[in-house]
Design goal:
It is a single chain. By secondary structure, the chain is mostly helical. Helices cover 73% and strands 0% of the residues. The protein contains 7 helices and no strands. α3 runs antiparallel to α4. It is globular.
Length: 124
């Protein structure tokens, strides 16, 4: 990552961490911080934020999808597949992105992942 971009990311992380210290349940900040951590390679911290967002918004399909991505990055395949299924059941529908999302690379050869793609591709 270029030095200037890394500097901006660190600034953003510090900013959103300070927002969460003042407003721990501010879901937009939790979601943004999770993405920032993950992009910085801080996968465990990103996973922590994704879990937090799912606790705050258990019916949020995108939050479940992001949690699945973090779990896949940690090589927790069965947990990631479970969260992906939840995301789909809650209304996640972006078949094309799910198929190409690099965060899900660890799952792509897994039979369960292929079954979820078929489920997503099937007409509702």
């Amino acid at each position: 990552m270029p030095k200037e971009k890394a500097h901006h990311s660190e600034f953003d992380i510090r900013f959103f961490e300070s927002v969460l210290r003042r407003s721990p349940n501010y879901t937009n900040a939790v979601e943004i911080l999770g993405g920032l951590y993950t992009r910085q390679g801080r996968i465990a911290d990103g996973l922590r934020m994704d879990r937090r967002l799912v606790r705050l918004q258990p019916a949020n399909a995108t939050a479940r999808y992001n949690l699945a991505c973090s779990l896949a990055l940690r090589k927790r395949k069965s947990d990631a597949l479970r969260e992906l299924r939840q995301a789909i059941e809650l209304g996640y529908r972006d078949f094309d992105w799910m198929q190409q999302d690099p965060d899900l690379e660890a799952l792509k050869g897994h039979q369960g992942f292929q079954a979820l793609l078929e489920l997503l591709k099937a007409p509702s």
